[in-house]
Amino acid sequence: MLSALLQTHVEDVFQDAAKRAFPALNADPAAFDRYWKQMKSWGNPSDVNIGNLFLQIGLPDVFSGLSWQRTTTADIKEKLGELNQVRNRIAHGNRDLTLNGNSYTLTLAKVVAFRNLAEKFGERFTDHVNTLIPAP
Fold first, then answer.
1. Helix, strand or coil for residue 104?
2. By CB neighbour count within 10 A (0-12 exposed, 13-18 middle, 19+ buried), where does 72 fall?
3. What is the phi/psi pair of residue 103, to 5°?
4. Which residue of 15, 17, 80, 101 could cross-link 47, Cys pair, CB 3.0 to 4.6 Å?
5. How many Å apart are CA 58 and CA 35, to the nearest integer?
6. 20 and 135 in contact (C-beta within 8 Å)?
């Protein structure tokens, strides 16, 4: 569920940023719909997939400078990657969870940590992207 929420949030932020990056898309809803149709299968919100999505609008590293108290940019990328791995294992019916090739047990504390990551990421990612691609 957290992964799906993050995916929707990232998509919303991306769509707004794409319209700022490419003003012609903002002026023509049909053109934007065609553009988004090609982008919408970008994948789950791993750090790599998010980075590749935002590269499409000219941001070589959308995470650059994104951090918060006791959480570096590298930490954010790592935790998003971990969440994506766990999500994929669960979604594809793997009984034995692994993370980075090692056995992994999902505990309540780990779920809370993922929830906290999603919350902080959601609070900060929109403003971060808005500083990278400001309104004209």
1. coil
2. exposed
3. -55, 140
4. 80
5. 15
6. yes
The rounded Cα 125 to chain-centroid distance in angstroms is 9
d(CA 80, CA 101) in angstroms, rounded, equals 16
Instruction: Specify burial of residue 65 (Cβ count, 10 A radius: 0-12, 13-18, 19+).
Output: exposed
CA dist., res. 116 & res. 5, Å (int): 13
Report which of 120, 1, 9, 126 is spatially closest to residue 68, judged by C-alpha positions.
120
User: 28-52: string of b/e by CB count within 10 Å (b at 16+)?
Assistant: eeeebeebeeeeeebebbbbebbbe
Residue of 59, 50, 56 whose CA lies nearest to 25: 56
In angstroms, the CA 90 to CA 52 distance is 24
Could you read off the pLDDT of 20-69 as tens digits, one per residue? 999 988 889 999 999 999 888 898 999 999 999 999 999 999 999 999 99
CA gap 51, 59 in Å, rounded: 8
How much is the pTM? 0.90
Interval 64-86: pLDDT, tens: 999 999 999 999 999 999 999 99
